[in-house]
Write a structure and sequence with these properties.
It is a single chain. This protein is mostly helical. It is built from three helices and no strands. α1 runs antiparallel to α3. The longest helix has about 70 residues.
Length: about 180
């Protein structure tokens, strides 16, 4: 009966090749995918900061709304219009609002101004909603990418273990040859 045997150098060469493939996978694919995953997390963090800043803008608009209401109430209660410098300062503060055009602060002009406040706040809320949806999408991509990275790491580890086993086969082959 003839025994089938593979030369030891082929086993060692195959083992070394598998270890090299494992190292290349780790260096190029896994590290590159990890960088991509980190970029997704960074984008999520940036979106979270932007959401926070946008909420602050909404709160700022609400404070401006309250200020205008208080000033108009004071003006109405005193029976005198607001001084021109105060009206000018308020107008300058409210100029960035969309569709906020007014000539003075008075009770009859509040409806348009309050509508401008509400419109601006609604636009900011829509921006927050879009950023939140973007973050959900980024989180889903990150989860899928991390699963892919995990699979690649497991494959690289498997190739490394098989490669080492084949290299160790050389030592086992020597022991068998010496025992004959």
């Amino acid at each position: 009966m003839r025994r089938w045997s593979v030369p030891t150098w082929i086993l060692v060469a195959t083992g070394l090749l598998l270890n090299i493939v494992s190292a290349l996978m780790t260096n190029f694919y896994i590290d590159g995918a990890t960088v991509d995953a980190n970029q997704l997390v960074q984008q999520q963090n940036n979106n979270e900061k932007l959401i926070s800043l946008t909420w602050q803008q909404i709160e700022g608009i609400e404070r401006k709304r309250e200020l205008v209401l208080n000033l108009v109430s004071l003006s109405e209660l005193s029976g005198a219009p607001l001084p021109a410098p105060v009206q000018q300062e308020i107008q300058d503060q409210l100029a960035p609002l969309h569709n906020a055009t007014f000539a003075g602060l008075a009770t009859d002009k509040l409806t348009g101004l309050m509508a401008a406040f509400s419109t601006e706040q609604e636009l900011l809320r829509e921006k927050i909603n879009q950023l939140f949806i973007d973050n959900l999408s980024l989180a889903d991509k990150h989860t899928r990418l991390m699963a892919h990275i995990s699979g690649l790491r497991n494959l690289a580890l498997f190739l490394q273990i098989i490669g080492l086993a084949l290299i160790l086969a050389r030592d086992l082959s020597r022991r068998q040859d010496l025992s004959r």
